[in-house]
């Protein structure tokens, strides 16, 4: 049997590169702003269906791009991003179509100490680590 780094339902625990690895021109590039935040609305509906007091897409967008967030706001964001990570095209849609940069996402994930493998592995693809550093390995 081949040993896989992915544990618990196929999801590895992978450390995220530090946010400074995402602080480059491509990492800070933002796509056009979707005034309806359709991708965020889809994520909220998918993540929190049936929850009456879930945040609005505008709120979630503001929290992601804000310079600081409360722990409660981070929790809402991380839960939505974990759902998006199961469909990487949705993560890409956030970056391409909703004026959210890779750096914004990496900062939130780092603040929350999230090591959800599907999410961090996708983000780590866009990191430019310092020379001589090694890629974080799955736990």
Could you characterize what this model shows?
The protein is mostly helical and 139 residues long. Helix content is 47%, strand content 0%. The protein is built from 7 helices and no strands. It has helices spanning 25-28, 38-47, 57-65, 71-85, 88-97, 102-111, 117-124. Helix 2 packs across helix 4 (71-85). The longest helix has 15 residues, at 71-85. The relative contact order is 0.25. The model is unreliable at 1-10 (pLDDT under 50).
Can you tag this structure with a few keywords?
7 helices, single chain, globular, mainly alpha, 139 residues
In short:
The chain has 139 residues and is mainly α. It is built from 7 helices and no strands.
């Amino acid at each position: 049997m081949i040993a896989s780094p992915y544990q618990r339902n196929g999801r590895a625990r992978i450390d995220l590169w530090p946010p400074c690895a995402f602080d480059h021109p491509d990492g800070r590039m933002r796509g056009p702003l979707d005034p309806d935040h359709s991708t965020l609305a889809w994520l909220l509906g998918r993540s929190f269906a049936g929850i009456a007091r879930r945040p609005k897409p505008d709120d979630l967008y503001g929290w992601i791009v804000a310079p600081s967030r409360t722990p409660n706001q981070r929790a809402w964001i991380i839960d939505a991003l974990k759902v998006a990570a199961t469909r990487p095209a949705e993560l890409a849609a956030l970056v391409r179509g909703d004026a959210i940069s890779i750096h914004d996402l990496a900062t939130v994930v780092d603040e929350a100490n999230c090591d959800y493998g599907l999410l961090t592995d996708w983000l780590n693809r866009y990191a430019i680590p310092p020379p001589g550093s090694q890629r974080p390995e799955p736990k």
